[in-house]
């Protein structure tokens, strides 16, 4: 049995909005990234995992419990960071954290204090006067403070500065080392690359790819940028090479293998400059987002 099991769920909001026949699992100890463009259906899926809404069709379970029917039991086991946190704005940060700790029957506050210190959060002020980043840190403290074995995080680093984003990556790595099962949606490719074992990509409410991170790293293509001596040669080269783009005397092509024929063809021309770089994970994901074939 997988820790998280999403089986053929559909939640149809009409007008092609919602999620359609979505299935995936998260295994024990796995960190899975849930990626997709705005409005793709990530939060809608996560809300069904939290039991806030029921699927029209299909089923969602965590540790064998139905996420909607057994919502209370499921939620009690989870650490959850919502995409948009509903705060009690008149409370101070620390009052709100204590309030949530009481709701979750957390007696030992040491983990919460450890997280407050780690995230360099000053929780004394009123929430209504806090920045987006400070509020996000409060959300992270609340999600992690009960030391849950399963974490569901909806865009966890939204609003955090780069230093805090990398501290968050370290936090996920530590939790992963402890065997935690984590599902997190994200728009930040670097954090996904550094933390996830697998990524599930959703677009227009449907899963379009599930990829092992190692496999993705291995499949990264190489991007070649070539500056020709004269434009006519660049034009001729582009005509003979599919997927090649040109800007004046410069051409750009993305290759996976096939490099020998490319270099031999290039040698027929006078070349001013040649640069090669490995495709970033972001560029790779953009192919999925844009719907290009892999
Ligand atoms: N309660 C609702 N009623 C009608 N439409 C909804 C409802 N909730 C979500 N939607 C629509 O369903 C689609 C998926 O929304 P969702 O919030 O799941 O996307 P997302 O992948 O989390 O996007 P983002 O990255 O922008 O947070 C969107 O078009 C959204 O407008």
UniProtKB/TrEMBL annotation:
GO terms for molecular function: ATP binding. The keyword Acyltransferase does not apply. It comes from the Bacteria. Keywords: ATP-binding, Nucleotide-binding, Transport. Signal peptide: none annotated. The keyword ATP-binding applies. Residues 4-229 form the ABC transporter domain. SMART domains: AAA (SM00382). Transmembrane segments: none annotated. Belongs to the ABC transporter superfamily. This is ABC transporter ATP-binding protein. It comes from Amedibacillus hominis.
């Amino acid at each position: 049995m997988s820790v998280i099991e999403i089986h053929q769920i559909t939640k149809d909001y009409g007008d092609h909005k919602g999620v359609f026949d979505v299935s995936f699992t998260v295994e024990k100890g796995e960190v899975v990234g849930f990626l997709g463009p705005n409005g793709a259906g990530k939060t809608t899926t996560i809300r069904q995992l939290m039991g806030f809404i029921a699927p029209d069709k299909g089923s969602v379970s965590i540790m064998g419990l139905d996420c909607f029917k057994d919502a209370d039991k499921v939620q009690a086991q989870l650490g959850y960071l919502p995409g948009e946190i509903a705060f009690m704005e008149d409370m101070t940060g620390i009052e709100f954290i204590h309030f949530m700790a009481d709701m979750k029957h957390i007696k030992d506050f040491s983990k919460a204090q450890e997280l407050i210190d780690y995230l360099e959060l000053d929780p004394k002020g009123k929430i209504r006067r806090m920045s987006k980043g400070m509020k996000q840190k409060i959300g992270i403290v609340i999600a992690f403070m009960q030391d849950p074995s399963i974490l569901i995080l909806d865009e966890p680093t939204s609003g955090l500065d780069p230093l805090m984003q990398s501290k968050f990556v370290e936090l996920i790595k530590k939790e992963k080392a402890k065997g935690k099962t984590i599902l997190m949606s994200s728009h930040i490719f670097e954090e996904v690359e550094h933390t996830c074992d697998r990524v599930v990509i959703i677009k227009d409410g449907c899963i379009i790819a599930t990829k092992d991170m190692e496999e993705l790293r291995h499949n990264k293509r190489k991007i070649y940028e070539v500056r020709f001596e004269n434009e006519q040669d660049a034009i001729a080269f582009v005509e003979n090479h599919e997927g090649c783009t040109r800007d004046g005397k410069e051409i750009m092509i993305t290759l996976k293998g096939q490099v020998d024929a490319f270099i031999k063809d290039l040698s027929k021309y006078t070349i001013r400059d040649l640069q090669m770089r490995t495709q970033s994970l972001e560029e790779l994901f953009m192919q999925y987002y844009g719907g290009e074939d892999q």
